[in-house]
């Protein structure tokens, strides 16, 4: 397998080099380093943030990440990936966990796989070499622990969601799925995919159980937001049997929340597109696509979209449960 990958990459490298004559008469080859595409796919900046480790080489020790008693800002240069327990050929970075004070976890799962390689792309060839070594077999997810419900949202690539009953759903960028507690399923794929995952222990009402949900953001209806200007979509049913929901919120440049929120609900937020300012308590943070925020109950919170492009974020919110219940 490794020999095949090395041989394949060597052929690509030779095929991508075009020899020619310079003005001084010497033979030259065009550079292979300019690989950035002209148009970026949806949520491209979540996994390719502007302020990434490669842009911080001259600023050792710098990070925008902050952790406080009632909130946290986790930025991409602080992500630490390691193999995910019970997942195969997948790396994960836990961004929100109960160690902070949350009752849920949010993590990025990077399912490894063969990547598309453009001719003339040196960086892509090197990436293919490393991926080939990892991708001798497909990636797959493990099951969460007992009574844990799971929500997934694809921000890069694609994957197959397979139920234990045999039902299969193809998930691509902007697709999502909710899996009830103790529901047999797996994510499988031979290509790379990056998935935002939220898990928590289900707070049962003792009467009925939740059902699996599969969909995509663009198929969800826009909901009314009295007194506000942002666009709102809710990805899960508003039935009381669901103990959390996921909101997709869109802001045009210059728009902001009218309400300065203070409430008992917790939030986990991933900025998918754009940039802005987030107020958390008495702190004001510049944020951009790829940033993750945890908000504890009753922390003052407010957002304004800045820049020249719209903002979109994914927001976890616990709902439909009495605050007196454990």
From TrEMBL:
<feature type="domain" description="Cupin type-2">
    <location>
        <begin position="248"/>
        <end position="314"/>
    </location>
</feature>
<dbReference type="InterPro" id="IPR013096">
    <property type="entry name" value="Cupin_2"/>
</dbReference>
<keyword id="KW-0732">Signal</keyword>
<dbReference type="InterPro" id="IPR014710">
    <property type="entry name" value="RmlC-like_jellyroll"/>
</dbReference>
<feature type="signal peptide">
    <location>
        <begin position="1"/>
        <end position="22"/>
    </location>
</feature>
<dbReference type="Pfam" id="PF07883">
    <property type="entry name" value="Cupin_2"/>
</dbReference>
<dbReference type="InterPro" id="IPR017627">
    <property type="entry name" value="UGHY"/>
</dbReference>
<dbReference type="InterPro" id="IPR011051">
    <property type="entry name" value="RmlC_Cupin_sf"/>
</dbReference>
<dbReference type="GO" id="GO:0071522">
    <property type="term" value="F:ureidoglycine aminohydrolase activity"/>
</dbReference>
<dbReference type="InterPro" id="IPR044697">
    <property type="entry name" value="UGlyAH_cupin_C"/>
</dbReference>
<protein>
    <recommendedName>
        <fullName>Cupin type-2 domain-containing protein</fullName>
    </recommendedName>
</protein>
